[in-house]
Amino acid sequence: MEETKEKEMDEIDLFLDSQVKSEEELLQEKCERTFYAASNPTRRELIKSICFLGKSEKELLELTGLDSASLNFHIRVLINADFLFLGEDGTYRLTEIGLNVLPKL
Protein backbone atom coordinates (compact mmCIF):
# COMPACT_ATOMS: atom_id res chain seq x y z
CA MET A 1 0.00 0.00 0.00
CA GLU A 2 2.81 2.39 0.91
CA GLU A 3 4.50 1.66 -2.43
CA THR A 4 1.29 2.64 -4.30
CA LYS A 5 1.17 5.99 -2.48
CA GLU A 6 4.78 6.67 -3.40
CA LYS A 7 4.07 5.81 -7.04
CA GLU A 8 1.01 8.10 -7.04
CA MET A 9 3.01 10.92 -5.51
CA ASP A 10 5.71 10.44 -8.13
CA GLU A 11 3.13 10.68 -10.93
CA ILE A 12 1.56 13.76 -9.38
CA ASP A 13 4.98 15.37 -8.92
CA LEU A 14 5.86 14.61 -12.54
CA PHE A 15 2.59 16.15 -13.69
CA LEU A 16 3.10 19.28 -11.59
CA ASP A 17 6.69 19.63 -12.76
CA SER A 18 5.54 19.41 -16.36
CA GLN A 19 3.16 22.34 -15.74
CA VAL A 20 5.95 24.70 -14.68
CA LYS A 21 6.58 27.25 -17.42
CA SER A 22 9.95 28.49 -18.46
CA GLU A 23 10.90 32.14 -18.12
CA GLU A 24 10.64 32.48 -21.89
CA GLU A 25 7.10 31.03 -21.91
CA LEU A 26 6.03 33.38 -19.12
CA LEU A 27 7.47 36.37 -20.99
CA GLN A 28 5.70 35.29 -24.18
CA GLU A 29 2.38 35.05 -22.31
CA LYS A 30 2.90 38.53 -20.83
CA CYS A 31 3.62 39.94 -24.29
CA GLU A 32 0.48 38.31 -25.67
CA ARG A 33 -1.67 39.69 -22.82
CA THR A 34 -0.20 43.16 -23.32
CA PHE A 35 -0.78 43.11 -27.08
CA TYR A 36 -4.30 41.73 -26.68
CA ALA A 37 -5.19 44.43 -24.16
CA ALA A 38 -3.69 47.32 -26.13
CA SER A 39 -4.95 46.23 -29.55
CA ASN A 40 -8.60 46.98 -28.80
CA PRO A 41 -9.87 50.55 -29.44
CA THR A 42 -12.34 50.39 -26.54
CA ARG A 43 -9.57 49.49 -24.10
CA ARG A 44 -7.33 52.24 -25.47
CA GLU A 45 -10.17 54.71 -24.89
CA LEU A 46 -10.56 53.42 -21.34
CA ILE A 47 -6.86 54.03 -20.68
CA LYS A 48 -7.20 57.58 -22.03
CA SER A 49 -10.37 58.17 -19.99
CA ILE A 50 -8.79 56.99 -16.76
CA CYS A 51 -5.72 59.12 -17.45
CA PHE A 52 -3.75 60.45 -14.48
CA LEU A 53 -6.62 61.08 -12.08
CA GLY A 54 -8.43 57.75 -12.25
CA LYS A 55 -12.13 57.08 -12.69
CA SER A 56 -14.85 55.18 -10.86
CA GLU A 57 -16.88 52.47 -12.56
CA LYS A 58 -19.87 54.84 -12.66
CA GLU A 59 -17.80 57.54 -14.40
CA LEU A 60 -16.47 55.03 -16.92
CA LEU A 61 -19.98 53.76 -17.67
CA GLU A 62 -21.14 57.32 -18.34
CA LEU A 63 -18.08 58.25 -20.42
CA THR A 64 -18.00 55.14 -22.58
CA GLY A 65 -21.67 54.29 -22.95
CA LEU A 66 -20.78 50.63 -22.36
CA ASP A 67 -23.06 48.36 -20.36
CA SER A 68 -21.72 47.07 -17.05
CA ALA A 69 -20.83 43.59 -18.36
CA SER A 70 -18.85 44.96 -21.32
CA LEU A 71 -17.04 47.49 -19.16
CA ASN A 72 -16.12 44.85 -16.61
CA PHE A 73 -14.80 42.55 -19.36
CA HIS A 74 -12.51 45.27 -20.74
CA ILE A 75 -11.41 46.32 -17.25
CA ARG A 76 -10.46 42.71 -16.39
CA VAL A 77 -8.39 42.46 -19.57
CA LEU A 78 -6.58 45.70 -18.72
CA ILE A 79 -5.97 44.61 -15.13
CA ASN A 80 -4.65 41.20 -16.26
CA ALA A 81 -2.27 42.95 -18.66
CA ASP A 82 -1.08 45.20 -15.81
CA PHE A 83 -2.36 48.46 -17.31
CA LEU A 84 -4.85 49.20 -14.50
CA PHE A 85 -5.53 48.48 -10.87
CA LEU A 86 -8.49 49.14 -8.62
CA GLY A 87 -7.56 51.49 -5.79
CA GLU A 88 -8.80 51.11 -2.24
CA ASP A 89 -11.18 54.02 -2.85
CA GLY A 90 -12.90 52.12 -5.71
CA THR A 91 -11.21 54.18 -8.40
CA TYR A 92 -9.52 52.57 -11.38
CA ARG A 93 -6.01 53.91 -11.85
CA LEU A 94 -3.23 53.35 -14.36
CA THR A 95 -0.22 51.30 -13.35
CA GLU A 96 3.29 52.35 -14.30
CA ILE A 97 2.88 50.45 -17.57
CA GLY A 98 -0.45 52.18 -18.20
CA LEU A 99 1.12 55.57 -17.52
CA ASN A 100 3.97 54.78 -19.91
CA VAL A 101 1.54 53.75 -22.66
CA LEU A 102 -0.80 56.72 -22.17
CA PRO A 103 1.21 59.33 -24.17
CA LYS A 104 1.45 56.93 -27.11
CA LEU A 105 -2.34 56.55 -27.47
Topology:
Elements: H1 2-19, H2 23-38, H3 41-50, E1 55-56, H4 57-64, H5 68-80, E2 84-86, E3 91-94, H6 96-101
Antiparallel strand pairs: 1-3, 2-3
Characterise this structure.
- By secondary structure, the protein is mostly helical.
- The chain has a domain at 41-105: Arc Repressor Mutant, subunit A.
- It has six helices and three strands.
- The chain has a three-stranded antiparallel sheet.
- α2 (23-38) runs antiparallel to α5 (68-80).
- The longest helix has 18 residues, at 2-19.
- The mean pLDDT is 87.
What would the keywords be for this entry?
105 residues; mainly alpha; Arc Repressor Mutant, subunit A; three-stranded antiparallel β-sheet; 3 strands; elongated
Order of strands across the main sheet: 1-3-2
Characterize the overall form: elongated
Tally of helical segments: 6
The biggest beta sheet reads: 3 strands, antiparallel
What is the class of the domain at 41-105 in the CATH system?
Mainly Alpha
Radius of gyration: 20 Å
Number of strands: 3
Mean pLDDT score, rounded? 87
Q: Order of SSEs, N→C?
A: HHHEHHEEH
Find the CATH topology of the domain at 41-105. Arc Repressor Mutant, subunit A
Which CATH architecture of the domain at 41-105?
Answer: Orthogonal Bundle
Strand content: 5-15%
The CATH homology group name of the domain at 41-105: Winged helix-like DNA-binding domain superfamily/Winged helix DNA-binding domain
Based on helices, strands and strand pairing, what is the structural class?
mainly alpha
What percent of the residues sit in helical stretches (DSSP H or I)?
Answer: 55-70%
Low-confidence stretches: none
Distance between the termini: 63 Å
